[in-house]
User: What shape does this take?
Amino acid sequence: MLDIAFIRENPDKVKRAIANKNFSPETIDKILASDTKRRDLIGKIELLRAERNKLNEQLKSARTQELMAKSGELKEQLQTFEPQLREVEEEFYAQMLQIPGVPLDEVPVGKDSSGNEVIRTWGEIVKLDFVPKNHIELGESLDLIDIERGSKVAGFRGYYLKNEGVMLQFALMQYTLQKFISKGYTPVTPPVILKKRAFVNTGHFPWGEKETYKFTSEAGEDETYLAGTAEVPLVSMYQDEVFYEKDLPIRMIGFSPCYRKEAGSYGKDTKGIYRVHEFVKTEQVVICKNDLAESLKLHEEMMALTEEIAQELKLPYRVLKMCTGDMGEPQAKKYDLEAWMPGRNDYGELASDSIMLDFQSRRANIRYRDVNNEIKFVHMLNNTASNSPRWLVAILENYQQADGSVKIPEVLIPFIGKTEIRRG
RNA sequence: GGAGAGUUGGCCGAGCGGUUUAUGGCGCAAGUCUUGAAAACUUGUGGGCGCAAGCCCUCAGAGGUUCGAAUCCUCUACUCUCCGCCA
Assistant: This one.
């Protein structure tokens, strides 16, 4: 959520920003109209209340009929305006939740993924002297992935992991957790069945509601939703709390299962386990003071850590700076890490590193007392650390050998106890 | 599923119709003192509207009673404890 004072003072900047995110700038005019209406009513009501307070002061000592009648009159007037204000404020708040975050000035303007910029590449794409298999073929021939039975039992995008597929998944997660713990991150396994508020806080709602699995109780109340990422519970973990600046930044590495309906992507990545409904992921969430320079610094740090993992796994990758139209509603700046996947003969996304500024903390009401004892909203950031199965796709396809076997990345060998995956 | 107890500011915790501008403590901040620090003392500490003076709001939320509600009544949400059931 944006600061209404900021919108009031910079309507054109905000309009331009949301137009760049493919939103209608007229929304801003509507919000400003609601805001004016709201402030009008507040003014009226506060005058009436001030009058009533004065009357009540007099009534303490002199309880005359006249004063009591006047007080009753004021109450009546208040009772006509107060419900109006409540209605206007509800509308106003709902509108505020619809406004996306403002991208930083340095973010390239673009309509869709074609506007993203490659800012660096790492590693060499090895020219194979054989026709590479994709992860589906490798998974089948090595008995690591069973998509046929996954679909039979779970439906489209269902899959079973087996044998070293399972071991690789756990190894990757364990290796990632150890890495982040050694960097001072606090490991957290959060709940993933969550109240709606948590999804509003991150900015997944209102935009991503169709993308989210929902549990409805018989009474129609206490609806809960399944988180698509540990970002959701981790961002809301400190909801309505106040930190001291000396306790920031807070660095967390969450591990959780993730659930996604993939409602908007029926035709996309339909083969294999690149895009699935459930998977496990480690996610970084960082909370810091309200300072752009600090956010920018941490954003780079978080990216460097994920790159360190990709590098230690020796996965060739590139880093993209996402453009305004392809970065998602809440973000102010975003990098994607994409690894080379020989089976796709293309890059595929492995991680997404975002600066949220105070967009999420305003919704979640997470604040801190700064060194001047002023209360401010924190900044929040998040980045994928590693996930399965998408990182498995990258590993299997990049580590495949001419004879159909797959080598195990050196850093994962201690967790699996063997150096290659081979059948027959 | 049944029974009971709670929800007050960053935290703890008083208050049980107008003396509360929400007592007190802790934390935090500024100042005084000090070579520096600690301690001590003083002041401050949530939200909104307004250029400002200032005004308004805030005791889980929503209604109600009353001239007047943190305080009384009703409903809702959440938390905790015990019993039952399941693991």
Notes: The first strand of chain A starts at residue 117 and ends at 122. Chain A has a mean pLDDT of 91.
